[in-house]
Amino acid sequence: MIKTEKERQATEMSYDKYDFRYDTNDYQIIFNRGLNKDVVKEISRIKNEPEWMTEFRLKGLKSFFEKPMPQWGANLNDINFDNIIYYMKPSDTNKKNWDDVPSYVKETFDKLGIPEAERKFLAGVGGQIDSEVIYHNVKKEFEEKGIVFLSMDEGLKQYPELVKKYFGTVIPYNDNKFAALNTATWSGGSYVYIPKNVKVDLPLQAYFRINAADFGQFERTLIIADEGSQVSYLEGCTAPRYSSESLHSAVVEIIALPGSKVQYITIQNWASNIYNLVTKRAFAYKDASVYWIDCNLGSKVTMKYPSIYLLEEGARGEVLSVAFAGNGQHQDAGAKIIHVAPNTTSTITSKSISKSSGRATYRGLLKVYPNAKNIKSSVKCDALLIDKESRTDTYPTIEIEEPDATVTHEATVGKIGEDQIFYLTSRGLSEAEATTLIVLGFVQPFTKSLPMEYAVEFNRLIELEMEGSVG
Predict the structure, then answer these.
(1) Which of 128, 253, 265, 362 could cross-link 170 (Cys pair, CB 3.0–4.6 Å)?
(2) Taking a C-beta distance cutoff of 8 angstroms, is the pair 450, 293 a contact?
(3) Single pTM value for the model
(4) Which of the 8 DSSP states describes residue 175?
């Protein structure tokens, strides 16, 4: 099919931006494959961690071995934990000065556009390759306000008491099999602390990159928003394509103290060989607000359900989830919101697109505890099927244990209508352009929630995913 100029421009973006890799021969440390107590102790020793963290890791390892593989979602039975490398150290880490970053790391970040983004519209940025954060910096004007934005490893070193107070309290070491695995093997990630009444008017961003084959990346993020503070945190995730599978299993814990506001945005574009199995959860206290904005593109399998526990009156939670499942992909995503306290509100909005035999699943939980009166919540799940070979599933769970609650649920499954295609093609668009335009309109609620630069990138990724859907 010969493309028009408009079609060529719409799909000129290439995975080459993400599908590159560097030789690991110059890495400082590469562990042997497999996981046991010695591996966990060695990770902790390399990082010179306090004894309590080593013991915490070992508790996580024990729980990981004891818990069976989950059978209720996507198929995870092909994961070979003995074939995974659990720690790699590329080079000197945690550089704050860009001039000190190794040249190949600079080249990696340049290809991903991170330095330009940092200059233009970020308050701070961190970049992790495989197991370690290589570059981390926060702009001086924000640092002077008392904002702490470090790698998780540096956060543990510089603020050990605060980390010990909160680490593993939102997501316990034995919460689930993959949270336990992360607890045992975590490396890198972000530690964020926003002081009382401080508002960060530019986003903080972390970028997570898997470079090596047969690798497991297990970053850990802890965000503490003190009373009356406000912060927006963005993360991006990519990896090159390999013939064998790799594993990404992160843990994110958010503590939103009274009156604070936290927005957490994820745009993942993993390669099709990645198992992406992530646990993310927030505790929202009195009058606090937590917003998860979650984009799931790429990967072989994604299982991710950002959760918010509304623990005190006036707390608000919102999750906006978008998933795109292409050939050979299963996006099992959604949200969980738990109303523990009265006078709390929540919204869950899920959008999914399936094409070329891809499978998208919404899996969610809305729970209202007894005596949590005057609850207002709405759940909306919309699924779009591009072709007959694709599949979508919805598993909404709603548990109401308090009669004084207002809860609505709406779910739709649809296909792109011939009348829509006819209308757009009659006005000069090709069928491929028309289909892509309809999909972009379908995900517009998500796009509108992103900073402009990220909205442009997200739309380009959708356009690239749609290439070849027609004709």
Answers:
(1) 253
(2) yes
(3) 0.88
(4) S
Q: 467, 418, 466: which is closest to 443 by C-alpha?
A: 466
End-to-end Cα distance, the chain: 7
What are the extents of the domains in the chain? Answer: 1-28+417-471, 31-304
Please give the pLDDT value at position 39.
97
Q: Across residues 270-281, what is the average pLDDT?
A: 92
18 vs 455, more confident: 455
Cα distances (Å, whole numbers) of residue 391 to 43, 168, 305, 315, 348: 41, 36, 19, 36, 21
**Do the beta carbons of residue 118 and residue 136 sit within 8 Å?**
no
What are the φ/ψ torsions at residue 327 (nearest 5 degrees)?
-55, 125
CB atoms within 10 A of CB 418: 8
User: Under a CB-based contact definition with an 8 Å cutoff, are residues 333 and 304 in contact?
Assistant: yes
List the structure tokens of 429: 């668009």
Integer Cα distance of 321 and 391 in angstroms: 18
Higher pLDDT, 304 or 122: 304
Q: For residue 11, what are its two tokens? A: 């799909």
The yes-or-no verdict on residue 94 having pLDDT over 70 is no
Q: How many CA atoms does the CB half-sphere of 403 hold within 13 Å?
A: 0
